[in-house]
Amino acid sequence: MEIVEKCISKGIFLHPDAKQKLEKQENPNQLIEKILETYEFKNPVLQPKHIEKYLKENPNKTHRKTKPTVEKITDDKPNQKPNQKPKQTKNPDKIAKPETENKNNSSGVETSSKDKSGEDSSVETNETGEGGSGESGVVVKRDITGRSECEGELKNFINYFNDRYERIKKEIGKRNGMRNVRPIDSLDTSKDSVSLVGIVNDVRDTSNGHKLILLEDKTGEVPALALKHRSDVYSDSEKVLQDEVIGLKGTTSDNGSDLFILDEIVWPDLPLSTGKPETKGDGYIAFISDVHFGSTTFMDSAWSRFVDWLNGEMGGPEHKKTVQKIKYLCIAGDLVEGIGVYPGQKKELRTVSITEQYKEAAEQLKKIPEHINIIISPGNHDAVRQAEPQPALDEKLQKQFDRDNITFIGNPSTIEIEGVEIIVYHGRSLDDLIAELPNCSYEKPANAMKEFVKRRHLSPIYGKKTPIAPENQDHLFVDKPDIIHCGHVHKFGIDNHKGVQLFNTGTWQKQTKFQKKKGIHPDPGRVVLYNLKNHEPKIVKFCN
Ligand code: D5M
Ligand code: FE
Ligand code: ZN
After folding, report:
1. pLDDT grade for 229, boundaries at 50, 70 and 90
2. How many Cβ atoms sit within 10 Å of the Cβ of residue 519?
3. Which of 70, 72, 332, 338 is the most buried (most CB within 10 A)?
4. Is 431 in the pocket of ligand 1 (CB under 6 A)?
């Protein structure tokens, strides 16, 4: 039951500001139940002050969204030469105090309760894979690899868009007031409020300053108008993207034209969060992206610090305990710099052969402790087809990685690790979302990643910078993951939307010439460490 319904069932009206406040909390469903149980409402309106009062009286952190802790493991020496090992960073005192607040754990390093009780904290291995999760503990739930059906024919495009439409329509049907959706060809001149679901064929400004959305379903197309003086619906209309599936509520125009006058635009989104995953796994997943082995701007020293840290050779005792429990390392694309990705890229290659770049990657990944299961998904710099969904690296390349416990997956893929469902997506469409949406920027990539959840799609726009292969099924549909892990934009970001944790793990590459020209300052050397027991993420930085 959603929070509004929970209130209604008790005869209480939820004030919109209170609703907004609730939604900012970690577990609104649980919180609203507690508030309804705790207070007697003389006036049947639940206001923001009730929430504030409850939070003040019950400072129970499970309701609040906490900021993840940040650990720094950096070498302060500037201008370190490539390949030169950091000199004195193995001293535990070098680890900076957490940058964000975490009152419960001043060191910022998570230790399991087993450690706290002083018991043996032996190194975790990947043997927890029994029970259907395979030897590596990684279950691949959705992946195009070996399953591509795309022949580039018209029928593929039709099948692809039908599948996109049906999947998202089903989700929109679960939203308030969207149960009785009408086919577009059944619209008549009656003035009743009507709900429609369709694919956006076009969005444009009219000469009078209104916004016109051309919506198409299987039965026809209708021009829908967001009037400029209707501020709510007009500002929503500015967020409508070409090719996405949306719901519209409104009425047919009373001037005899076939215009549909909009009252509301409905995105599928997810219902309010039901909280964190209920599973209690053990250990950690480390998330990284955009390593770019082979590039002149690859940051050797930060990478070496990361590898040393994984081997327990850097950081204090707390870190050593933590890294022993890292059981998985997930890499979300651009493992190597690749070749021919951008015009003039050759000048920025330290290793000019793609095979050699993967050899280098394999050598580096071999230095990672054996018990860590590695997951590799490709990006636009990797040697696979560019159109998404991209398959995993081919077998010849896979064979270069001389270790058994690497799971090669496509981009995007959905995997499950100890009950936690993760969409691994490189994130190329972030460029398109950031270009089109007024509320998205490179500075806050996790904000743009919220749009993946809101629109239940990883690449709503078809045919801008993100090439999409028209597979018969829409592999870019977003179901209900616990985590979405991206990279690509080389900016770090972490957030949560409707219970989905969003990580963008930045890069291991310095600012490139292109980024300099565009004024983009990358966030290199960041790792998200996800605790499989309490589902909290932490950030570890290997350079400033
Ligand atoms: O992408 C890194 C980020 O920089 C991503 O937002 C695309 C953008 N980028 C980088 N170089 C270029 C060029 N030459 N043209 C257009 N966009 C670019 P990555 O996938 O690592 O290259
Ligand atoms: Fe990249
Ligand atoms: Zn990329």
Report:
1. very high
2. 8
3. 332
4. yes
Question: Domain map of the chain by residue range?
Answer: 3-57, 112-149+273-541, 184-266
Domain 112-149+273-541 class, CATH top level? alpha beta
User: Model pTM?
Assistant: 0.82
The minimum-distance atom of ligand 1 relative to the CA of 344 is 14
pLDDT 10s digits, 118-137: 322 222 222 333 333 457 89
Residue 336 CA to ligand 2 centre (angstroms): 9
Whose CA is closest to atom 4 on ligand 1? Answer: 489
Q: How far is the CA of 407 from the centre of ligand 3 (A)?
A: 20
Give the pLDDT confidence of 146-166 residue by residue, as tens digits: 999 998 889 999 999 999 999
Please tell me what DSSP assigns to residue 456: T
Which fold, 184-266? OB fold (Dihydrolipoamide Acetyltransferase, E2P) (2.40.50)
Measured CA to CA, the distance from residue 511 to residue 166 in angstroms comes to 42
pLDDT in tens, 30-65: 888 888 877 777 677 788 888 888 888 777 655 566
Instruction: Tell me which ligand sits closest to the C-alpha of residue 341.
Output: 1
Q: How many CB atoms lie within 10 A of CB 349?
A: 17
380 CA: nearest ligand 1 atom? 20
Please, are residues 389 and 424 in contact by the beta-carbon 8 Å criterion?
A: no
Ligand 1 binding pocket includes 514 (Cβ within 6 Å) = yes
User: Cα separation of 327 and 304, whole Å?
Assistant: 19
Q: Are 82 and 116 in contact (CB under 8 A)?
A: no
**DSSP state, residue 520:** -
DSSP state of 493: E
> What are the CA-CA distances from residue 388 to residues 2, 469, 502 (Å)?
35, 6, 20
